[in-house]
Amino acid sequence: MSDWVKGRVAAKQQWAEGLYSMRFEATLEPFSAGQYIKVAMDIDGERVGRPYSLVNPPGQAEPEIYFNAIPEGPLTPRLSDLEPGDTVWLSARASGIFTLDTVQPAKTLWLLATGTALGVYLSILRTATPWEQFERVVLVHGVRQPSDLTYGDTLAEIVAHHGERFTFIPAISRAEAPDALYGRITDLLVSGTLEARAGATITPEDSHVMLCGNSAMIKESKAILESRGLERHRRHAPGQYTTEQYH
Ligand SMILES: Cc1cc2nc3c(=O)[nH]c(=O)nc-3n(C[C@H](O)[C@H](O)[C@H](O)COP(=O)(O)OP(=O)(O)OC[C@H]3O[C@@H](n4cnc5c(N)ncnc54)[C@H](O)[C@@H]3O)c2cc1C
Ligand SMILES: NC(=O)c1ccc[n+]([C@@H]2O[C@H](COP(=O)([O-])OP(=O)(O)OC[C@H]3O[C@@H](n4cnc5c(N)ncnc54)[C@H](OP(=O)(O)O)[C@@H]3O)[C@@H](O)[C@H]2O)c1
């Protein structure tokens, strides 16, 4: 069971309708970039907790999460109603193996996200590890609408630190927008459009791919990657892709 600590909402940002990030005042145990905590509220006498990836890098004081309000969901409509000063429960210890800890160094790290899965990569990218293990990092954010493209300032900071070693590619599936690719990540992989935009090719020899977010995107992307010879990474059997499913 989770070892809960009380936290206070320190800041809430609404990025678009139903799309939020939240920072908490709370003292948690040290974690590795890529891990998640549980956030809970007591609802009708029951503690309702859900996992959320940490957006902040290790060592940064306030834990931060990025989430959307699912109208029919038990937790998120209530979570998104909280204001600074309100209390929540947080698991003291982070969990999860969606980290770079055991991944083999390679030429290019590909980070593929749908929706709020962007957040986990913002934690990883603000540590030294990807920049020590890979020559280049390509981050792809797949969203429905232009208003779902968020955290522009944080992405600009990463560009400022790492220059041409970092490529950010927004992909919008339900509208066309300047500078963004049009379509789903999976279709853009199959057509070669994604790699053409990145100026790099995904191969088992020189790539590691992380997939996070929508389970259907992950399932279809896995099939595409496996058809190109990439294998799932395991701690004791190194491969070229790792996954974390949110829904
Ligand atoms: C390891 C892990 C890490 C996660 N990290 C995050 C995170 O950083 N940010 C985040 O927003 N969610 C994350 N999730 C999902 C999160 O835990 C909740 O499920 C989500 O916030 C909805 O909670 P809920 O109680 O309102 O509804 P739930 O009862 O949990 O879900 C209701 C329905 O909403 C859909 N759904 C759930 N999550 C999402 C989502 N993120 N986007 C779109 N549809 C969704 C599913 O179809 C689900 O059946 C993570 C899940 C896991 C397993
Ligand atoms: N702004 C927000 O993010 C927001 C705000 C309020 C509420 N919500 C709620 O959150 C839920 C959806 O959130 P979301 O838009 O972040 O997540 P999502 O439905 O997972 O969509 C994110 C991206 O993943 C794509 N995708 C879906 N299935 C795929 C597949 N099989 N292969 C490849 N790509 C795939 C989507 O493309 P398609 O467009 O083709 O599906 C979209 O580009 C809904 O319940 C919504 O009501 C979201």
TrEMBL record:
PANTHER family from the UniProt entry: FLAVODOXIN_FERREDOXIN--NADP REDUCTASE, OXIDOREDUCTASE FAD/NAD(P)-BINDING DOMAIN PROTEIN
Gene3D superfamilies cross-referenced by the UniProt entry: Nucleotide-binding domain of ferredoxin-NADP reductase (FNR) module (3.40.50.80), Translation factors (2.40.30.10)
Protein name: ferredoxin--NADP(+) reductase
Native organism taxonomy: Bacteria, Pseudomonadati, Pseudomonadota, Gammaproteobacteria, Chromatiales
Family of the protein in this entry: Belongs to the ferredoxin--NADP reductase type 1 family.
Known catalytic reactions: 2 reduced [2Fe-2S]-[ferredoxin] + NADP(+) + H(+) = 2 oxidized [2Fe-2S]-[ferredoxin] + NADPH
Cofactor(s) listed in the protein's UniProt record: FAD
Region (Disordered): 228-247
